[in-house]
Write a structure and sequence with these properties.
This protein has helices at residues 17-28, 57-67, 85-94, 119-132, 147-150, 160-179, and strands at residues 4-9, 34-37, 71-75, 105-111, 135-136, 142-144. It is of the alpha/beta class and 181 residues long. The radius of gyration is 15 Å and the shape is globular.
Length: 181
């Protein structure tokens, strides 16, 4: 049976490149993973220790989704050479009270219209996840640069190199999760 994986796009934009990247991963990796894209980061308030109890509904929903998944794939854009605030905020919430990221296998990928392919954002995400106790897959890495050239106007991936990279990530991540059960 294929592992149940939760995909999280680190952008609030409905039609973001990273949401498209997760959609392509779900299609290309159907034999390796059952990927469901989480849609609810906008429901999560800014982290505040004074607001941890009772747990805000959006945080509770995200925690339940993460707890129910065998692993996570985070697709991050790059904002000012780092991860978006909304993604850092979600990770902060997931690391508190009920640390659902601890020992959770995670793969990190990312897409941007720039030339660097989210290298710095992915490094920041990996560092932050490691601090939470998540089991971050070290290789392969997938940095999608010039995302606007990799998808057609309808949002479908049409780049063979990125498609191949997504398949490699899916296969490696399946092995990563199985080895850590």
């Amino acid at each position: 049976m294929s592992p149940n994986v939760l995909g999280v796009a680190g952008s609030l934009r409905h039609d973001s490149w990273n949401r498209r990247l997760l959609g392509a991963l779900a299609e290309l990796a159907a034999d390796d993973l059952r990927l469901t894209v989480y849609d609810g980061l906008e429901q999560i308030p800014l982290f505040n220790e004074d607001a941890e109890e009772p747990t805000p509904p959006g945080v509770r929903q995200l925690r339940e989704a993460v707890r129910g998944a065998d692993g996570l794939v985070i697709a991050t854009p790059e904002y000012n050479q780092s991860m978006p605030g909304v993604l850092k905020n979600a990770i902060d919430w997931l690391s508190r009270t009920e640390p659902v990221l601890e020992a959770k296998p995670v793969a990190v990928i990312g897409a941007t219209v720039g030339n660097w392919g989210t290298r710095l954002a992915q490094a920041a995400v990996r560092q932050t996840l490691t601090a939470t106790g998540a089991l971050v897959m070290p290789q392969p890495m997938l940095f999608v640069a010039r995302a606007n050239e990799r998808f057609d106007p309808s949002g479908r991936l049409h780049d063979a190199e990125v498609s191949s990279g997504l398949r490699k990530v899916a296969q490696a991540f399946r092995q990563w999760m199985v080895a850590r059960r």
